[in-house]
Automatic annotation (TrEMBL), chains A, B:
The lineage of its organism: Bacteria, Bacillati, Actinomycetota, Actinomycetes, Mycobacteriales. It comes from Rhodococcoides kroppenstedtii. This is TetR/AcrR family transcriptional regulator. Keywords: DNA-binding. InterPro entries: Homeodomain-like_sf, HTH-type_TetR-like_transc_reg, HTH_TetR. PANTHER family: HTH-TYPE TRANSCRIPTIONAL REGULATOR RUTR, POSSIBLE TRANSCRIPTIONAL REGULATORY PROTEIN (PROBABLY TETR-FAMILY). Residues 19-79 form the HTH tetR-type domain. Residues 42-61 bind DNA. It comes from the Bacteria.
């Protein structure tokens, strides 16, 4: 987490405090979901974990649904920061294919912790492809495929690379299919290598 | 469409007539969706097209939702018949990779015509992976990958092969992404070839 996550107004102490409080509450929410799963995410638990009154949490997020949306946005922003400005291999500096593999591992990590929240978002009224976060990830992956000099229909290959990272699929595989997270990561990395390897040896 | 679609009781004329009427109504429904899109599928239109009273359609399917479910089931059964017992390349007799490519083309064809119905089904309450039809398609594709002697995690590769055929994805690509059906089919065939080609030349 860096200060860059939330651009602050110039020296406005009140807004600065508000931003800090918001981050404090969201960090508490992340820790709760991490430890107890999505069901552990209640307004009460967040308040007590962050050491504030329950009213503060309600004033900030309106409802548990609002808190969940803010949490997803928080996680997504942190991931975007990491792949755009963070250290390699996720951030700039590593070869594109290594960055792509690191991106997938990071995504699986997020789904393992916040999968239920993500699944609800994916299956909500509007198309899952309409989410701004989805577009950012799509652009990032397409750019890496181009940088890796992959030949072919990059747009459709990007869909193919991203499909197995979708929370709905991952949760189904982990729970109903009883596959392990390690197997999913390994299988996805193998898929990426198949998709990106050149047609014939030079 | 063959008689095998609906197993009939032994010589029971009444049940035989009922099955025939059902098929008559469903064929009318398929034709309507084909010509006018999903919005053209009304109980009235099916009745008038099949030359029966509206009451007959309601008695048979209960509601428009019931008709839509029956229609999806009808299409799915016809596709299953084709890949299990029909002529090659979709049915037995062609090399497994050719059968796989034919399966994808057939799936795209179904989505183009009945995409809206399929998308509703995919995004309904229960997981899209819970549908019996999904399991049949999954088993078929996994079997073809094995028969083609593809090495690797066949279960996860099957998910990767099937993901781009999902109605939710295809409709998004056709409408919001303005991709053409031809491009989707070509891109999917290319994906299958990348996934199935051997690691290194012999």
């Amino acid at each position: 987490m860096t200060d860059a996550l939330l651009p602050l107004a110039n020296g406005d102490t009140e807004r600065c405090d508000a931003a800090r409080n918001r981050r404090l509450l969201l960090d508490a929410a992340v820790a709760l979901v991490d430890e107890r799963g999505p069901d552990g995410l209640t307004m009460d638990a967040v308040a007590s974990r962050a050491g504030v009154g329950k009213g503060t949490v309600f004033r900030r997020f309106g409802s548990r649904a609002g808190l969940m949306l803010a949490l997803l946005d928080h996680t997504e922003t942190a991931l975007q920061q990491s792949f755009m400005f963070g250290p390699p291999p996720l951030g700039p500096g590593a070869p594109p294919l290594e960055r792509l593999l690191a991106y997938g591992r990071a995504r699986f990590g997020v789904v393992e912790v916040q999968g239920e929240l993500l699944r609800s978002a994916e299956n909500s009224g509007s198309s899952r492809f309409a989410a701004p976060a989805w577009a950012v990830g799509f652009t990032h992956v397409a750019g890496l495929l181009r940088a890796a000099d992959v030949q072919g229909d990059i747009e459709l290959l990007t869909y193919a690379v991203l499909a197995p990272l979708e929370a709905t699929v991952v949760l189904h595989q982990l729970r109903d299919g009883r596959l392990t997270p390690e197997r999913l990561v390994r299988g996805w990395e193998d898929l990426v290598l198949r998709i990106t390897r050149p047609d014939s040896p030079e």
